[in-house]
Amino acid sequence: MRVPQLIGVMLLVGHPLLVAVEPFSLGQGEAALEPRPSHSGGPFPFLDTNSSLQQPAVPVELAPDPAMGSLEYRLAELEEELAESQQRIESLEGTRHQAEKKASTFPNVTINGVFQADGVAFHQTEASREVYGRIESGADFRRARLSAKGAVAPQMDYFLQMDFGFFGRPTFTDVWADFKEAGPLGTVRVGQWKQPFSLEVVSSFRYTTFMERSSLFQAFTPFRHLGIGCYNHAEDLSATWAASYFRTGQDQFGGSLSTDGGHGLAGRLTQLAWYDEVGDDYLHLGGGYFLNAPPQGNPPLSKHSGDFRRRIYCPNRSTTRDQWRACSRCGQRHPLLC
Asked: Does residue 277 fall inside a structural domain?
């Protein structure tokens, strides 16, 4: 007796639905239920790799979610930025550690240098030549400075700077020592430095808007002088103050010789009266004071030690370019000033 056909159905998770048809006879008994040895797929002949009924397994993939892809990309970016930030922090901490180690070793010194060169070319009309003569074109070093800055003790700093471009060849610019933590005085400074008067005075030439400071600066500010002073600030950094006594009438070598006059005072006070938390709006107030008692009552044209424009006014000057006279003050021959 032969039964037409029996259909066996097997569903595998993750695989396509496969239908296998296998004929067998009831008269064959248990032997008919044994697997055929010709198949290599084990007891399931439809999984035989050589069988024509086998279909390739196709994994089920979900459709990509644009939102998830964007989040994963952003997460990768943040992880990369975090790694870079950690590297920078480690580098800065290493640099700070080296600086602290160097600063904690006394005495210590840091060497710096800067130079500034000028070049100029003139063109004159005949009228200009008649009045001023021939003005020469040329170039020179306006500034050529070497400096050493450091500390000899935790409460004592120093700074020494010489300029080889000024007439002194070299000329003293900043030469001072600071004694810190001096009680209510804050820090006491002794030597030659930019006196505490005018914001334009204490600003470096590297940050000036124009090539020269203003004409008022040349005539009415003390700039660098030899003296003693102090400076301090409020605990919340909302106010600063400074005061100094110094000698006036210095020459290009920093000297001031006079028993009649030659004294100066300067002071500066600032206050941050108001500011918002963001820092976009604020009100900053300040005031300064400068007193100059020139040597022998003779005010100089300019009071800047080491500056080639600092020449004492000479009453025996000549206004004619061809007439050079010996100056009664310095003994040198010159057309206008000594």
From this structure: yes
